TrEMBL record, chains A, B, C, D:
Species name: Cytobacillus horneckiae
Keywords, sorted A to Z: Hydrolase, Manganese, Metal-binding
Protein name: Amidohydrolase
Pfam family, one: Peptidase_M20
Domain Peptidase M20 dimerisation: 224-304
Length: 430, 430, 430, 430
């Protein structure tokens, strides 16, 4: 194992930096998916893409048709072949790699999320990707959550399976999932049935907490349930000087909604979150704004808190804010993730499996997640049918928090993650 | 005159519809300016463009360099010749046409504004430009204030001067002004000295009030003084689930500013206006927004009310809203127009000059404007140096208010406007 | 006349200072009414009080039964006799004095409002009533609008009629109206029919504008129509630490309503006003507030603007603010005044009538009121039945604006007002 | 023990109902304190009151002098003797009862809080105190948190010590604390040194969670640290119709502060709370409000979260809200409680001590408090000097949540609480 990992490391770093330069937001991961596909094609996997892996109607939070078309043009311009483009046409991004050993054994599903964020990456000196010349080539988009690393780790795990295939039993499914941000990609994969026969599920994230490289958490806890909501307000434009009273002001309705949403009362039963992350309203300064669009998310320590408290509160406030300014509100649910718990058995399993590692020197049994992850949909499905699921955290110092323009991590975490998953897989063969 | 106007009318309609299809917002009127230039070239005018007519540093509310470059590319793609592009390079749009009769007489300046608005035109049946096939070809932009008509009227007035030149004395300056919306284009023309020797100033607007075709106002009153303000808020992004408290929320600061600006107390001394017409904030739903941008305008019945009450109130509220959410505010003044009054003598002058018209059947001495117009800068300059200024309103029914996606007017107002100005010019020769 | 006025002046000042010391808010003017009654008893008037002069069900904005009871106790403690108390029992304050000359002639109604405000008077040096020792004896209440002077002027006019009765014809009705503040007292007097046979109506106010003593306005214009609204919010209390989510927060609903009401868009057709003047919410800091009460007023340059724009906007905003916080709103209309115009004939009448005065040296034909006055109900009624009405302004410098804790005026305005009304009455005899 | 408790029960109920009828808010517990004093006088305790038990300058959140005077008058009217009134004069309420067995042993301090809340009690049928005729006799005040029970339990514990004195060693201090609501009374008792020699501290609360009678928690956890803040805004009054722009609106500043305070971002490190529980602003509807007063509290799961996050956020928001409306803010800290933890040893101690009880059938080791309690000041002091502290919860079903107008509990909890404390005391003798 050590030898394999050592040889693999430059590849992981190369791929991570490649992905980092081509960040693509949810449902537009054309270049990313194609790069992964090209890599996987060289190994012994059956590849599945498009509608085979995503239930079309379960996809949420889709870009506009215009955005999809623009991104497809961009992907072609950036060199994605017609073969791959055809499979992904219409925002069916992501890829699934399956390998059947032919020997009886369990079915292990492992998930890697691959999307980036609409954040403008820092170009300042001292920001590692800037200094090293692999900063984002797409202004306004950035791998600010480490999914570039996740994609690279996935390719590493694929190589591990390929390399160790003689020692393995049963079946393997590697899910390179689009649209984790916004809770959009896991559900359509689950609903397509990809996890239906899985006995074990492994997911994970690099960073999150300020752990050191070599420290990992066997399980994560406190996944916040989350719902992603788009709200639009439609009013009536008017000349702001001549006839302001003839307008119905959608911008003010959205501003009011932002403040009042932000004031949803804290709940005694557990942590909740509310964020209006994006707001666009109005077309010009001397026109009463006739539209506004907001991107909102709610979270709760439990699915109950999120879905039965935060979401109804948000709905009521959006409607009432529209009424305040006599405009019309439209509410669309565009993403969601439940809360879920890891199966307890993984604590001992991971501790034992990495026992002989020289790189992994500390296994924390359970670490608070404190964020949302739609991997919970996959965990839920696997557990529902009697399987067992975990979600690990792979420690690395961070130069700035997740979703920050200067977010970065120590690439030494990449081989650690591949090794941890590899050793867990081997352990499951026993 | 009647014969001339009759012959001119199809040309006015043709040009108006042409301009309507190529709406261009302030400082990007490349196609519009070039079309005007092409028309004027055929007549006996000296043409002036670029830095000859606009004091560079007096221009306000400029688009970004990117937007300027994009629009220049667009203009070239739409067929504007290199000759014109060179003169306008860097957002120096607009054109001035001068004619000197060679005979002693007064200097008459006449102004036509030519910019459009960032409004998406209605494509519904019943909207005349849609029905007649001359709807905007630039999605998201529209001549929703009638400046397409103003440009056509300007060309009509140029033809009038050309046609009647034997009967005219003194000098004529026709100013095709960019950037009236936002109060951006008049000041740099005035500061370039274009009005410095003018004895008379004529400006005007079609529509405004629900007059009938054939009804005009000899003078307009109650121009609201106005200031255009851009406010930006800079906070700190953070993961909205993991560490919301580490963010500093620029979106909420802007939302608060919007509501509190809107609540600036009414003033006992006269009418005031406040509008936050555009707001953009944040990059994604799960990120605490680290920036927000707002486009604001204040107005006052007097320059005093606007500049000494509304603007300082707005400044204080923007700063305090930033303090509420611990973010940084930047305030930029991007446009302005004073209040001004027409010279009283024009009431009688216009009444007498149209006395023999068969088309103009009613002259209202004075009509309330109720909006802002940076023509007031030109009026101010001409009056300051002892000249006399008016701003007329040319009646036409409107299908929807100014700045509305279904704004339209009766094209019969176009020849009426040319005739009114023509007759006023003739009257001034006596 | 000059002799009469000269002799009257010390009496006017004495009475004004007396009223100033016993300020009583709307519907609690027991001491004030009784003092007026005592004075009038000495003259040749028939006095009317209680339900004779106020239609019970037309009274609006009543104090609570507890407040009425407390004030009646107070009035008795301050020496009001049982005779007067009986007539006023249940908040039927105010008094009407009628005099019939027995000679044919017109019926002239003259109105004086007598109520004070819930404002704490300044006790600082330099505040004239404090310096002169006639500051309010009721903490929290103050004659901050000059109605102490109006009551004194009314007594002066009564003495004038008494003194000049041999020269007078027709009938006179002096209305000492309760509850002008809040637009509460005029309507029940009008609906009781007191103005039904009046040919002329005279009302007026001291101060308002910064005129000098000796300057008066023959008519006032731009009475703002006004509506007085009470809004209550009912939520649910909860322990703010243990179970904040179980509460429904009426305080926040009221706070939201305050801000959003304040943001009602300005109207192109004329001036409007909105004020939330009083807000009380919640019972303790660690309890989610389960109630809130607000006192609101709207105004409009026209009755149309007030009643068809401001009031419906206010209603919608109050309801939507309740919805924002899931509480219940109750809206109560507690006062109202229409806009009205003075009859034009008074300009010449007043100018001629004061022609020989040595004290009144300037008559302004028309002065903008800019405030609301329920005298407009009386003006409306008199004009409706063919009569003629005016509302004059009696100039005096003010030490601070109306409704300010340091409000005061020059008492020299008191004889001026009596003289003006007296001369107008004499003029009407001709 | 069983016999003693059985005999004691009617007394507990009688006393609880007595206290319930005379609810008194913080620093005005004159009648309550006197009633306790009268009861204790009959037993073998030394009683301490006034400045002996409260460090004057450590008292926070005092009523106004007027309120203190009014309450002292009321207490005298309700029959409190001059002897007691003298000791309590100036809001020095509360009483401490000390008993020294004369035998060597530890010093046990037990605390009972006795204040009520400014809540209007429900008089509806079905509300037990209403049905049974012991509803509050002071409108607007109510024992809505169970401190009437705590006072009765304290008297029961006093009787227990009196009864069992032959079996006891060491010293006992019973603290009947005023002003727990608002975190006002514990600190001045602690700073007066009353806990300085205590080896053990016992506090507790009835209700809180929906436990059954007979269920108790040996320790409580998650006391929220809390700070109580008064904010005042001072603006400038003006006539809302005539000159609204001359006012500076304190009501709107307070409304803005309420909303923006309510929106203080949730913190990733733990639970926080914010409540604006009371707001009073303005004097009348047609006057721009020149003052506003707010009662606020912040809480945090840790003292750190409260004092270093919530309080500075609240300060900034209050100041910025004042700046929004150009008014002046004054901030006063009027109460505070740290977070604290119970000593772990009490879990086993309580479990063993009630082992033989027939009434107490379940001991929960640790229960989340979720609220604030200034008993934490006493716990902190005792632990700092090497002692050991607990805070127990005595289960009872509640008819409505704490601080609700229909709050009530099963009186069967009263003997349970006395028995629990009694058995713990006996256990400490071993």
């Amino acid at each position: 194992m050590n030898e394999f990992i050592k040889k693999l490391t430059p590849y992981l770093i190369k791929m991570r930096r490649h992905f980092h330069q081509y960040p693509e937001a949810a449902w537009t991961e054309y270049v990313t998916t194609a790069s992964i596909a090209e890599e996987l094609k060289q190994l012994d996997f059956n590849l599945y893409m498009g509608k085979e892996i995503l239930k079309a109607e379960a996809r949420m939070g889709m870009p506009s048709n215009q955005e999809i078309a623009d991104n497809e043009k961009r992907a072609i311009a950036e060199g994605v072949s017609a073969e791959w483009m055809e499979k992904m046409a219409g925002a069916f991004t992501g890829i699934v790699a399956a390998y059947d050993t032919g020997r009886p054994g369990s079915h292990i599903a492992i998930r890697f999320d691959i999307d980036a964020l609409p954040i403008k990456e820092s170009a300042e000196a001292g920001h590692f990707p800037a200094d090293e010349g692999f900063i984002s080539k797409r202004e306004g988009f950035m791998h600010a959550c480490g999914h570039d690393g996740h994609a690279a780790i996935g390719l590493g795990v694929a190589r591990f399976i390929h390399e160790f295939k003689q020692r393995l039993y049963g079946r393997f499914t590697l899910l390179f999932q689009p649209g984790e941000e916004g809770g959009r990609g896991a559900k359509p994969m689950v609903e397509q049935g990809l996890l239906d026969s899985a006995d074990y599920f492994i997911g994970g994230h690099i960073g999150i907490h300020s752990l050191k490289v070599g420290e990992i958490a066997a399980t994560a806890t406190k996944f916040l349930a989350s719902t992603k909501i788009n709200a639009s307000f439609y009013g009536k434009s008017a000349h702001a000087g001549l006839s302001p009273n003839e307008g119905r002001n959608a911008l003010l309705a959205a501003a009011a909604a932002s403040l009042h949403l932000n004031g949803i009362t804290r709940h005694a039963d557990g942590h909740t979150r509310i964020n209006v992350g994006k707001l666009e309203a109005g077309s010009g300064r001397n026109i009463v704004a006739d539209f506004a669009r907001m991107e909102i998310e709610t979270r709760g320590e439990s699915t109950e808190l999120n879905e039965n408290y935060m979401v109804p509160e948000a709905r009521r406030i959006i409607e009432a804010s529209a009424a305040l300014y006599d405009v019309k509100a439209e509410i669309e649910m565009v993403g969601t993730a439940p809360s879920e718990e890891c199966s307890k058995e993984w604590v001992e399993r991971i501790q034992e499996s990495v026992d002989e590692s020289t790189a992994i020197h500390r296994v924390i049994p359970e670490l608070t997640m404190g964020a949302s992850e739609d991997a919970t949909y996959m965990m839920q499905r696997v557990k529902q049918q009697g399987g067992s699921a975990t979600y690990m955290i792979f420690g690395t110092p961070l130069s700035a928090g997740h979703h920050h323009p200067r977010f970065d991590y120590d690439e030494a975490v990449l081989p650690i993650a591949v090794e941890t998953i590899g050793r867990a897989v081997l352990k499951l063969q026993q």
